[in-house]
Amino acid sequence: MLLSNKVCVITGAASRRGIGRATARLFALHGGRAIILDLDGAQAAEAAAELGEAHRGFACDVTDRDACFAAANRVVEEFGRIDVLVNNAGITQPLKFMDIGPKNYEAVTDVSLRGTLYMSQAVVPHMRERKSGSIVCISSVSAQRGGGIFGGPHYSAAKAGVLGLAKAMARELGSDNVRVNSVTPGLIQTDITGGKLTDELRAEILKGIPLNRLGDAEDVARSCLFLASELSSYITGATLDVNGGMLIH
């Protein structure tokens, strides 16, 4: 049990085939108490209920700073602490550079980057008080290679911002024994990719992946488990690539 009795908050974790949901399931299997946050409170509660009575699901808009602080305070009031935060909430848009308008840019960067900032700010005071905590930020291979398959340049920019923010947080929070690391998934089979991959496109993509398969949400969840647990107790400011070798650098 790598997370025995740890209180673990995961944002954007209600989607059935998503990385957040898979992470919540795995954390629960390892003894953690999964707190699922999502825009849809009913879906979040349902997802948590499927894991068992020890888990909770709340509504939270990560682009709303007050909502993030309210959610964190609610968790602490009920469970006494927050040990782990996984900043997973994010959206993508398959737009070309010249097609990105102000609303597109704001929508994508608000959830991925602003949401990571606000939710982290909400939990850090509680972690600092206990001199213990792990924050995992979900970025993307798109941030590293300059573009993805299903995300436009504004998605790459937002996810690159997450990497920079996480490293800066790691440097500042290390003295409080709060670790901050990032995960950069490659092409993962989730609701975002569902139905969009033709056989021809899949075959073409696999040519560039040395492990010759697409990733599953569970592949990313296992990486989050490692970074959330004491197995990575001397790791902070790191970026863990989970892409099957799509990007080797």
What does this structure look like?
- The chain is an alpha/beta fold and 249 residues long.
- It has one domain: NAD(P)-binding Rossmann-like Domain (Rossmann fold), CATH 3.40.50.720.
- Helices cover 45% and strands 16% of the residues.
- It has a seven-stranded parallel beta sheet, with helices on both faces. Strands 7-8 form a two-stranded parallel ribbon.
- Strand 7 (188-189), helix 7 (199-206) and strand 8 form a beta-alpha-beta unit.
- It is globular and about 50 Å long.
Helices and strands, with pairings:
Elements: E1 7-11, H1 19-29, E2 33-38, H2 41-51, E3 56-59, H3 65-79, E4 84-87, H4 102-130, E5 133-138, H5 141-145, H6 153-173, E6 178-185, E7 188-189, H7 199-206, E8 215-216, H8 217-228, E9 239-242
Parallel strand pairs: 1-2, 1-4, 2-3, 4-5, 5-6, 6-9, 7-8
Helix pairs in contact: 1-8, 3-4, 4-6
